[in-house]
Amino acid sequence: MSAVRWAIGLVLAGLVGWFAVDEARGTGDGAQARSSLTIIAPAAAGGGWDLVAREMQQALRTDGIVGNVQVVNVPGAAGTIGLSQLARMTGDPTTIMVTGTVMVGGIGMSDSSTTLTVVTPVSRLAEDFEVIAVPSDSELETFEDVVEAWQEDPTMPIGGGSAGGIDHMIAAQLAEATGVGAGELHYTPHAGGGELTLSLLSDASGTVDVGISGYNDFRDLIDGGRLRAVAVVAPEPLEGVDAPTMIDLGYSEVDMVNWRGIVAAPGITDEERDELLDIVEEMTQTTSWDEAIERNRWEESWQGPDDFRDFLVGEQERIDAILEELGLS
């Protein structure tokens, strides 16, 4: 695809996202977040951000915290199209967006002046961990097999999500740690976990044999025996996942964590921000959310607005440095 067609595609995706969010916001009748709340998932349905948004929607509805909760998907450019839409909703107290490590990487990879500093931090919620997987019938039975095959053929494609996202950064870190070299990495980006798993399970030309993604993108296929996890990028083994950690394998420098957080539109008042914070905090105390944390193998990592704001500044600096070091920016 040419650069012009790619740019046109991003513009069209942005327009579709804008109309979807604008419609979900309603008629501007002054309804506040307790009565009507829109959650932007800045990715296609079925991915990690969408999962967080849907789990939030379920918890908020089940426990009656918010009267009406809508999820709107605004996919594209590692979440930065969704971010640009939210950044234009100045003063809107009824819309929030899921964010995370992938978006920070997307910002670092782009020339956009729209960063997470322009929106309103609400809270950090949890951490989500990455899994390296192969088809269950693959000759690559262990992570050591993957490394050996990769070292023999550095052109072996490694599949994952958006370019510059956490999957890409982990692949580059792995390439450096295993001696393949980030400059030799042949990374194949996919629009989401669904597209990646289809590629992994296909024998067609141009598909991949090794994939990196969030655990929940692979969970059903791992449980169903169609994919095999060969490693997890997490500080501790994931319960129910029979795969070693990077630390177990001797690659402690491969340590990217995919955190999840919530931001709101710019220009809202402190009182409106606090109301959104109360809504999210009440949600995290529900049985529905506890079940979501356990089911999705997330780890809670709560931060309020001030700490989250400081975290976002430091995280952007950290990710920018990693992208530059790995030659991805």
TrEMBL record:
CDD domains this protein is in?
PBP2_Bug_TTT (cd07012)
InterPro entries in the cross-refs: BUG (IPR005064), Bug_dom1 (IPR042100)
Q: Where is the signal peptide?
A: none
TM region positions: none
- Family listed: Belongs to the UPF0065 (bug) family.
PANTHER family linked: TRICARBOXYLATE-BINDING PROTEIN (PTHR42928), UPF0065 PROTEIN YFLP (PTHR42928:SF3)
Q: What is this protein called?
A: Tripartite tricarboxylate transporter substrate binding protein
Organism taxonomic ancestry: Bacteria, Bacillati, Actinomycetota, Actinomycetes, Propionibacteriales
